């Protein structure tokens, strides 16, 4: 009986979500970016033409299309056009170096790479490093820019007059592969289906109270799943108006909030702190701002108090999750910010979360355990990586790798990272990757990379190094080496030299002890 139904009648994909909003709210402003403004009807029609253009340039259903670009109206349109075409989007962190980008391109098997003028050189350099990339798409930027020769211009694709053939696409088809900074030296590609992303949209709308009446500012990179799928996607789904910028610096953000009467804004604590420290803060009319969101790291309690005092009309939400769960998992709401400081709250609508011991038993109040989830938000698995997929879903729960405690009211607080991830300035950094880079220096005997509290970065990447006997090594040499070969955000902000590293009787490195001892210095 079910096989007799036409799939399109019940279909719900990311692109369908945009189309339904356009039918409901055709004249409402959907996108503003620089001098570009589109209503929902205009945005939806452009996405359809762009999807047709993608088809006629040879992008097929299921093809992997990588996107290495800063925030723009072009990025926003391409996101939904790829979904409408049935292609698989692969957003890439534009702060990576060419060999890091090339690894993702090779692993994903991307044959098409979309980029913008500012990143075109990096895109071409990376694509030339033994990847399968055969064609490039040029995306317009927030500020006026000219198409890059040899790349298919966005405007030409969006002017396609040929029809898009029927696409047999379902909710359970793959929508995107998002590469996450894993604990291993190579990133993992989380495979997310249309339905996983859409179930997550629903949780965001309900628990984060994303609303049709919002005027949202999207300033953090859209390559990151938080900005793309916790805020931008749900805002399109519900019908908010959206201002997009590629410049998340205080002067620009404050001006845009005032100019567009922004009501909703997300940023990691580092950006909120930068706004508070701006000399323009008190001179800017910020009375429209009603909803403030943060995540990626804990907001210091003193900063929470300062935000409450200087932005008294703003209600705050702390959001916690990870790429593999699309990415929202738990949320701490406005009423609990100062009552439960540092907590990531409770599971959102479509997530079941536990804190368990190694035997998968719920831990007692105050006892440390691992956060595990069950949810339709969750990924299918890691692309071309069955072993790490199996390990992540052991026992029929998804293992987050984060260690936490739970209190007598069910609020969860992350206390450590089982897989030793550093979250600095809103970015994930795998300590092992940085350690392996530092070990390339011949004078290094041992190194441990940890995150230490920092007023700007919240966590600063810190390298503790034991130098080989008879050798010499300076902080400047370490930093120069890392900056040459790694993205800037991964590089240590501080280098400490030590005679030994603390270990337990079995030889296991005690990073928690390192954090405690060096945080006090």
List the helices and strands and how they pair.
Layout: H1 7-10, H2 14-24, E1 29-33, E2 36-39, H3 40-56, E3 64-68, H4 73-85, E4 88-91, H5 98-108, E5 112-116, H6 120-127, E6 135-139, E7 152-153, H7 154-158, E8 174-180, E9 188-193, H8 194-207, E10 215-218, H9 225-238, E11 241-244, H10 250-260, E12 264-266, H11 269-277, E13 291-295, H12 301-310, E14 315-321, E15 328-332, E16 346-347, E17 352-356, E18 369-374, E19 381-382, H13 386-392, E20 398-406, E21 412-417, E22 421-424, E23 427-430, H14 431-438, E24 444-454, E25 458-467, H15 475-485, E26 494-497, H16 511-519
Parallel strand pairs: 1-11, 3-4, 3-5, 5-6, 6-7, 10-11, 10-12, 12-13, 13-14, 25-26
Antiparallel strand pairs: 1-2, 8-9, 9-19, 14-15, 15-16, 17-18, 18-20, 20-21, 22-23, 24-25
Characterization of the model:
The chain is of the alpha/beta class. It folds into two domains: 399 residues, ANL, N-terminal domain (Rossmann fold, 3-Layer(aba) Sandwich); 99 residues, 2-Layer Sandwich (GMP Synthetase, Chain A, domain 3), CATH 3.30.300. It is 31% helix and 26% strand. It is built from 16 helices and 26 strands. The strands form six sheets. A nine-stranded mixed beta sheet has the order 2-1-11-10-12-13-14-15-16, with helices on both faces. Strands 4-3-5-6-7 form a five-stranded parallel beta sheet, with helices on both faces. Strand 14 and strand 15 form a beta hairpin. The longest helix is centred in the first third of the chain and has 17 residues. The radius of gyration is 23 Å and the shape is globular.
